[in-house]
Design brief:
Blueprint lengths: L9 E5 L5 H16 L9 H7 L2 H9 L3 E8 L2 E9 L12 E9 L8 H15 L4 E7 L3 H8 L3 E7 L11 E8 L2
Parallel strand pairs: 4-5
Antiparallel strand pairs: 1-2, 2-3, 3-4, 5-7, 6-7
Length: 181
């Protein structure tokens, strides 16, 4: 794996109907590359069926509270992003909080700074929308937790994967927050 250089251009393209298939393909690929261990026999179908079908993506696309993006490195799509614009969290109202629902990057592009650029992009969007907090749910085990901590997120509370089919010991998650000054 190499580091991003100035010649590497990372950009975020809002989803359009003609890119639904790319979103579904890349989202499914990235999820399966990173999260097979959460599911008995690596069967991610329960999650994929609630996240990466044409019906689901069309519904999310029409939802004014949901923002969907493709992540590109140069001209290659390497990930997806899903934000919930108005997402309350305990003391924060929906007007004050933005939820990072999905950030999935294919394995070939992981570890190259793309995730950090995505968090910067999201933070700027949250700041422009006058949000007070950006929040997400991260697995309690695995590299994502340290990545989010390194990028200024703090553990707020605990939760777990909501799918009954997920492996029990893999379900624990942290709700993490990053305040926006």
């Amino acid at each position: 794996m190499t580091s991003l250089t100035m010649k590497d251009i990372v950009y975020f393209e809002p989803l359009r109907p003609e890119t639904f298939d790319t979103y579904i393909t890349i989202g499914t690929k990235a999820y399966n590359q990173h999260y097979l261990h959460l599911w008995p026999h690596g069967d991610t179908a329960p999650y994929i069926q609630t996240s990466f079908t044409v019906t689901i993506v069309k519904k999310e696309f029409r939802d004014i509270n949901t923002q969907l993006f493709l992540i590109y490195r140069n001209k290659e799509c390497v990930g997806i992003l899903k934000l919930i614009t108005d997402a309350p969290l305990e003391a924060y109202s929906k007007k004050e909080a933005l939820y990072l629902d999905k950030i999935y990057i294919i394995k070939d592009a992981s570890g190259e700074g793309i995730g950090t650029k995505a968090l910067q992009f999201i933070w700027l969007r949250a700041k422009a929308a006058e949000k007070r907090v950006l929040w997400l749910a991260a697995m309690q085990k695995g590299p994502a937790l340290n990545f989010y901590k390194k990028n200024g997120f703090n553990i707020h509370s605990t939760t777990e994967i909501k799918f009954k089919q997920a492996i029990k010991v893999e379900k624990p998650m942290f709700i993490m927050i990053k305040r926006i000054p």
